[in-house]
Amino acid sequence: MPERTIGGVYVANVTPFKDDGTLAVDEGAYLEHVAWLSEGGVRGVVPFGTNGEGPSVAMEEKLRVLEALFDRGSGLQIIPSVMQTNLPDTLRMIEFLNGHPAAAVLVLPPYYFKPADAEGLKRFYEPVMEASEHSVVAYHIPKYAVPVPAEVVGSLPFWGVKDSGGEPGYAETVLGAGRGVLVGTEDDVRSRVGIGAQGAISALANFVPEEVVALYDSATSGDDSVGEELAGFLLEARAKTKEHSSPAVLKRLAQERHGVPMGTVRPPFVPLPQGYAAAEVLRIARGPAGTGGAA
Fold first, then answer.
1. Which pLDDT does position 289 carry in this prediction?
2. Cα separation of 110 and 116, whole Å?
3. Backbone angles phi, psi at 67, to 5 degrees
């Protein structure tokens, strides 16, 4: 069975870039954002994933920020995303993380060559698992990358999978093989936790961590009345985050909550238009009263 040390709500935390022409990673803002998240009841963060613009961040930048994040000791679990396009760089990042107290590593397979068959995926993941001192979580996000079939997850010693595909039967098959599931979208939290998923990795928790934690708690407790209401607010808010570049929206909404300048996005994403109505999206996501109190 999957280790029970992994579970609850994790934030697919965004990466602030300086809006000064350099587009450099703003390490100070990054750490301040994570510190604010630590006060919102979440279990941990997942740096440099999809909404963290991982493919747009250089290896050296990632290692520098992760070093600072581990050194700061926020009290949160850290599950770094390893989204390199090749095995050597993947192993280099795994080796770096072996010297740090990560809760696990979230590993995306090389995503350029499609389709990738099961044997090819095993050839990639086997040396990763051999090299890693931490539990390995497969990153299944078929909309953007190479799918990781449930059969591959069940045939290798993964902790489990981040399921951002949501295909019918996928999570059930992974759970049935004795592996864990971290839900990749807020829309699926209630249904997937209800069948045994251990937690969720949430983009919306960048700006409404309290509401996402409350949604997860309602799913684990079986409180359908609260869960249904929260899910409705978050579903509408999630749709709003897709009207522009999601990382840009998430950064702006997080900035609206805590006041830390979250900068801009790197190409090919584009910044938000002037006059973006952040307060309106926050009002939708937090409901009439707001689970977490005043913004």
1. 53
2. 9
3. -60, -45
Mean pLDDT of 30-47: 98
Strands (E) in the chain, as ranges, are: 8-11, 44-45, 77-78, 81-82, 105-107, 136-140, 160-163, 180-183, 199-202
Question: Domain boundaries in the chain?
Answer: 8-286
**Domain 8-286: CATH architecture, name and number where available:** Alpha-Beta Barrel (3.20)
Among 151, 115, 246, 137, smallest CA distance to 198 is for 137
pLDDT of residue 48: 98
- The string of pLDDT tens digits covering residues 82-125 is 999 999 999 999 999 999 999 999 999 999 999 999 999 999 99
What would the 3-class secondary structure string for 248-293 be? HHHHHHHHHHHCCCCEECCCCCCCCCCCCCHHHHHHHHHCCCCCCC
Pairing of strands 105-107, 81-82: parallel
The 10s digit of each residue's pLDDT in 181-193 is 999 999 999 999 9
Residue 222 neighbours by CB distance under 10 Å: 10
What average pLDDT is seen over the chain? 94
Q: Which residues contact 82 (CB under 8 A, 6 or more apart)?
A: 90, 93, 94, 97, 105, 106, 107, 108
Q: How far apart are the C-alpha atoms of 89 and 48, rounded to whole Å?
A: 15
Token pair in block for residue 60: 């050296």
86, burial (CB in 10 Å: exposed 0-12, middle 13-18, buried 19+): exposed
Decide: helix, strand or coil at residue 9: strand
Q: What is the mean pLDDT of residues 135-157?
A: 97
Query: What angle separates helix 278-286 from helix 224-241, to the nearest 10 degrees?
Result: 160
pLDDT beyond 70 at 3: no
Which residues have CB under 8 Å from 167's CB, separation 6+? 142
Coil, strand or helix at 163:
strand
